Amino acid sequence: MSDSSLLDPHAMWRQALARVDRAFATPPALDRPVDGCTWCTSEAELRVLGGDPAAVPDDLLGHFLREVADHWAADQYPVLWRRLMPRALRHWGPDGPGGADPSDELGRLAHRGAGLADWPAPERAAVEDAFRALLALALTDGRPPGEITDLVEGVAHATGGLERWLEHLAGLPGPQADAGIVRLALGWATELLWEELEFWWWPDGDPGVIAAWLPTQRGRIAAFAARHPRCRTAADALHALDALHAGAESPWLYPYGLHPYLPLA
Asked: Residue 256 — very low, low, confident or very high, per pLDDT cuts 50/70/90?
């Protein structure tokens, strides 16, 4: 883009998919029929997974993405992922089925699974480019913060680190990105204040990285609040960040477990 102040996440996504399709134009070959758990995946489905990646039905693709790594032969598992990666990215993208937490599926790419970090450099670079586009779409399309944080967790788990993806989110320009940062900051700050921020599928993830990153976004959030003085989300995000900085308790009641007391109120 010629103007760095403009952001078109959909164009980013299309360009990323084109790069992915080039990187994976020749799928790696399997040296034998697919070896997997036949309790969970039928012999017929295993044969389909070993054939043309474009011919794998969407429901079988979703099953593969969700199935745990130890249900497949260890040497074939990364190869299967590399063969299906263009399909997987589209599954997670704006035209995919949606409605599911992607953090578990993305986590299958981690070093204990498909080992994305060890893939050929052009493939790995193309996948990470697509991750950047997915995060840009998530931050700017108005989705709830929980859906953004699920995607951030999955991408960080897949690639082994959180910091560069937070840096990427912080660097996205434009009013839609500003609004996304406000929503994201309020969601994470509230969970930190309630002491319930955790990564459900990423055991090595450190929520402290998020706690250290949030204050770096205060200026951007304050500027958004000044431009939109009636925005309650921005005001609450600043209130939450101030409470975190002061080491104070949450200014909001914890919402779970209160319903028995509502009739008394």
From this structure: low
Band of residue 195 on the pLDDT scale cut at 50, 70, 90: confident
Distance CA 36, CA 102 (A): 22
Distances (CA, A) of 206 to 106, 162, 210, 259: 17, 9, 8, 32
Q: How many helices (H) and strands (E) does the chain have?
A: 12, 0
Q: How far apart are CA 52 and CA 58, in angstroms?
A: 13
CA distance 131 to 83: 17
Strands annotated E in the chain = none
Burial of 229 per CB tally in 10 Å (0-12, 13-18, 19+): exposed
What span, in angstroms and rounded, lies between the C-alpha atoms of 87 and 233? 36
State yes or no: pLDDT of 142 exceeds 60. yes
- Give the integer Cα–Cα distance in Å for 97 and 93: 9
Alpha-carbon gap, residue 109 to 104, rounded angstroms: 10
Q: How would you label 189-212 residue by residue, b for 16+ Cβ within 10 Å and e otherwise?
A: bbbbbeeebebebbeebebeebee
Token pair 């951030």 in the structure block, residue: 152
- 42 SS3 class: coil
Paired tokens of 174: 């434009």
Residue 165, classed as helix, strand or coil, is helix
> Is-contact 1 136, C-beta < 8 A?
no
Instruction: Answer yes or no: pTM beyond 0.90.
Output: yes
User: What number of other Cβ atoms are within 10 A of residue 185's Cβ?
Assistant: 27
Residue 225 contacts residue 233 (beta carbons within 8 Å): no
Mean pLDDT of 36-59: 96
3-state secondary structure of 38: coil
Any idea what the Cα angle at residue 64 is, between residues 22 and 24, rounded to 5°? 10
